[in-house]
Amino acid sequence: MFTKQSLVTLLGGLSLAVAQTTTEEYPSLAEIRAAQATVQPYSPVSNVKGLAFNRFVNIWLENTDFDAAAATEHLPVLAKKGLLLNNFWAITHPSEPNYCASAAGDTFGMDNDDFHQIPSNVSTIADLFDTKNIAWGEYQEGLPYPGYQGYRYPESGANDYVRKHNPLILFDSVTEDALRLRQIKNFSSFYDDLENHRLPQYMFITPNMTNDGHDTNITFSGDWTWNFLSELLENDYFTKDTLIMLTFDETGTYEIGNNIYTFLLGGAVPDDLLGTKDDTFYTHYSVIASLSANWGLPSLGRWDCGANLFSWLAKKTGYVNYEVDTSNLYMNETHWGPLSDDDYSEYYAGWPVPTTDASCSAGNGILSTVKKTYEGLTATFNYTTPFPYDSRSGNNVGVKYSRTLKNGKVESGTSE
Ligand SMILES: *[C@@H]1O[C@H](CO)[C@@H](O)[C@H](O)[C@H]1NC(C)=O
Ligand SMILES: *[C@@H]1O[C@H](CO)[C@@H](O)[C@H](O)[C@H]1NC(C)=O
Ligand SMILES: *[C@@H]1O[C@H](CO)[C@@H](O)[C@H](O)[C@H]1NC(C)=O
Ligand SMILES: *[C@@H]1O[C@H](CO)[C@@H](O)[C@H](O)[C@H]1NC(C)=O
Ligand SMILES: *[C@@H]1O[C@H](CO)[C@@H](O)[C@H](O)[C@H]1NC(C)=O
Ligand SMILES: *[C@@H]1O[C@H](CO)[C@@H](O)[C@H](O)[C@H]1NC(C)=O
């Protein structure tokens, strides 16, 4: 029989022998305690002016159908204080590929919540922000220390922090950089950064598995949202020129269209849009495209490339968004790729190649490292469409989209 102390010692010894690298799914308690004692959060600040907002706060709840969120006591009240995005779509199921998509513009075929590490030649929004030194960060409730890479914490018992809800930790281009890791922090750091006026210009906020509704329900996560935001909406430092987006990773029901309840709040929502709803077709990829258009950043050359922009931002840049006929659209499965378990997508070992020369909705070309890395290779998918689709598997095919340009020319197509 092991005593608790000897088990800790034993695990500590084992982990030293086998795993000092980022592949560690279950670090020992001793390692966690050691890191907690030494790793400090890093909170860079910047003030790069954007066309439509100077700060973006991305808050994700879990697994709820549009109608269920719309029927809660608090969420519609909050939406009324801002702008309801009525036609906003998640990318696929289950959770992790959606979080991955928000950071890198692709799912890479992921149809599961496994422990993935995405190779360092895949770029993310962190690379986009770094081109202009726009400070970014993540606030993950219950993360034991900045940059923790384990599968969950605590490692057993009730779910609290889980890696599958942490977008940037999935990428080697982030985890191989000690400074970047320290920008992935917990809620104590959020309140410290708020108080010290050291919030970044882009932040991703993940409540724990209780508060985000995953292990509870939409009544609980709706109440959490109300409590979390009510105080923040009174804070001028937080809301000034800020867009706060409340959304969901995906619907709870897999067989219906993946249209999720989403609204924008904060000082950057234009006055004339307050209390209204926007029927423009958006996806999680539209957020990346809108961040790029807002701050003059390039595209990742993946599914962010053709994604629609926030409607009033598109007006400012002159981009014309597509209308998408969603009557045949589900967005409840994804295309093939190396992260597939062959459940809702097809496993294929090759990594999808991004476009290096398309003209994207944000209008600022493709990130230079993406161009260099994938020079001369043919893009795997048609990334200039406003939603992802895959001819080979038939995922999201047969969907019509069109737009009328300012000169009256109509551009239309069908995914096939
Ligand atoms: C990117 O990295 C992966 C994994 O190391 C590798 O299989 C792939 O060939 C690389 N892609 C390019 C274009 O270098
Ligand atoms: C949050 O992170 C800090 C280190 O930045 C750590 O001291 C603290 O224990 C963490 N909080 C939780 C709830 O794990
Ligand atoms: C989730 O966070 C809340 C605080 O927001 C905390 O009271 C609760 O214990 C956490 N849930 C779990 C299962 O750890
Ligand atoms: C929602 O979850 C909370 C916390 O687990 C629970 O107390 C409550 O009964 C649940 N409500 C419904 C309608 O299931
Ligand atoms: C997606 O929705 C279609 C239509 O309801 C259904 O046939 C298919 O099984 C769904 N996919 C998943 C993964 O549930
Ligand atoms: C790719 O999408 C664009 C729309 O942006 C469309 O004009 C073009 O025909 C598509 N290409 C193919 C090969 O389907």
Automatic annotation (TrEMBL):
Highest taxon of the lineage: Eukaryota
UniProt protein name: Acid phosphatase
Any one GO biological process: phospholipid catabolic process
Catalytic EC class: hydrolase
Database matches in Gene3D superfamilies: Alkaline Phosphatase, subunit A
Listed GO MF terms: acid phosphatase activity
Keyword Hydrolase: yes
EC assignment: 3.1.3.2
UniProt catalytic activity: a phosphate monoester + H2O = an alcohol + phosphate
Entry keywords, A to Z: Hydrolase
